[in-house]
Amino acid sequence: MESFNEIDHKKIGPERIRLLCSTIIEGDSYIALQKLEDESIQCAVTSPPYWGLRDYGIDGQIGLENQLQQYIDNLVVVFREVRRILTADGVLWLNIGDGYTSGDRGCRAPDKKNQARAMSVRPGTSAGLKPKDLLGVPWRLAFALQSDGWHLRSDVIWNKPNCQVLARMIMFWTHSWAPALWAKWPLDIREDSSAWN
Ligand SMILES: C[S@@+](CC[C@H](N)C(=O)[O-])C[C@H]1O[C@@H](n2cnc3c(N)ncnc32)[C@H](O)[C@@H]1O
Q: To test the ligand 1 pocket, which listed residue (29, 51, 76, 82) has its Cβ within 8 A of the most ligand atoms?
């Protein structure tokens, strides 16, 4: 397996990707995507960090922006690069979850069941939201991506029967996530499949 630095990025295109079968590129998503040629990928599948829920401890990480709108804007810029490298019939599977405002708590104490859920920094309540408000991230991102040129083809509910319920927070953790299917162009492939009807 070649490391990211060993790859001749000028040669990354449809032919090379077909030949290699698999290449792992590690790095900041926006910068790494810029190394890929226009219309060289047919399918993208991704699960970006949700806003304000976890500190991954890496430079330039997405998800800890002070304002929710900054987070949405950052994702739109990254997905603009994804759209550039998608082929005309390409699709994007995007898994994105929601959350609640922190009520201006500055940190998240370690979760007894999952120590990794501790966070030393948490974004405060964003402009336009109130403490304990549902953020509405999937919808906000959906509308922002549509405005940026994406075609939203379908929303897909990921039912999670084993979700956590924290009654003391006076709200339910959602047991359904919202991945979505996006397309670069308004394709109509009814002849091949009824899934797009
Ligand atoms: C929800 S996790 C995705 C997990 C992944 N689907 C998996 O199964 O391992 C989000 C990931 O995005 C990474 N991440 C955060 N900001 C990033 C950025 N700017 N560029 C690339 N990756 C980033 C985090 O380090 C984390 O690994």
A: 29
